[in-house]
Amino acid sequence: MMTTGVWHPIALSVSIEPGSSAGTHVGGRELVVWRDNSGVAHVWEDRCPHRGMKLSFGFVRGDHIACLYHGWQYDTAGQCRYIPAHPDLKVPRSITVATYRTAEASGMIWAAIESAESAAPALPEDAGEVVPIRSVYVDVGADALLAAIEATPPRPFGGTERSVAAKLQRVGAKLHSLAAGADTLLLGLQSLSDNRTALHVVVAGPASSYVDKGQAHFLAWTAELRHRLDAQSAGSNHITEAA
Amino acid sequence: MAAPTETVRLSFIGRLVLPSFAEFADKRAAKLDLKLAVRSAGDERFTVDVSGQPDLIDAFEMACSLGPLDCLVLDCDRTEIHGVSNGEDKR
Lengths: 243, 91
Prior knowledge:
With about 240 residues, chain A is of the alpha+beta class. Chain A has three helices and 15 strands.
């Protein structure tokens, strides 16, 4: 899968609280996304250089992340700073974790997963104030997911234009907008693998318009979408098994 | 302050696939920020002088004692060449 030179949505910003970490994938590549105690998000290769343990199982300690296995600690640049078994050791600069450029925009954490020689991609434009809905994980590729969204868009929550057809529009390599009446959803598509996708959903607008009832409205739509895709996926698996 | 360093001679004895073992040792030394000078290299014995922080030399010895998959290290001789210094150049 091609993952060069593109900003990938990795998680909803609200999903990664300060002092926490989580594991995820892009194109089969294992990543850890973590937020230090000052609130800055980081996306790295999910592998401790010592014994290969996933750093996403580790602990955030201030501006360091510590591996669960032997407690090796890495600073925000991915440089190992402390090895508990050798507290007096001056840790060599060669012990580092592969890091990716990370940014936050439109309520999502983004990472540039790219080779060193590729040009710097432009981050999708920030949509301003947004309200998070949820991240949904489905067993279909990104194109099939978009087709399902276009076929069964959400009903509008606010406004009066209830009869206007929803409009899905690509606004970035991995970002789509979905206009439904007066509401605009932003959809970040994270290709976990060829046939598994994470959909990160936010609604553009002020918290006063969407918190609680608006969130519940669009949350119900994402649940329906996922159930529909799960049923399709189970159906196609059944056909494959029968064949 | 500079980190303390020492130099030791390590001989790994066993059934070695030379290119594989040499590459493994090179990569481990680079990872551990150690200077490596190969003194002799054969299918049964591989001898290197290793300089750097003592804890990292220990880690190198342990890693090479396990070695790459296609090599079997049966023993390791260790001789101190220069004891631990504070890292300052005394010339």
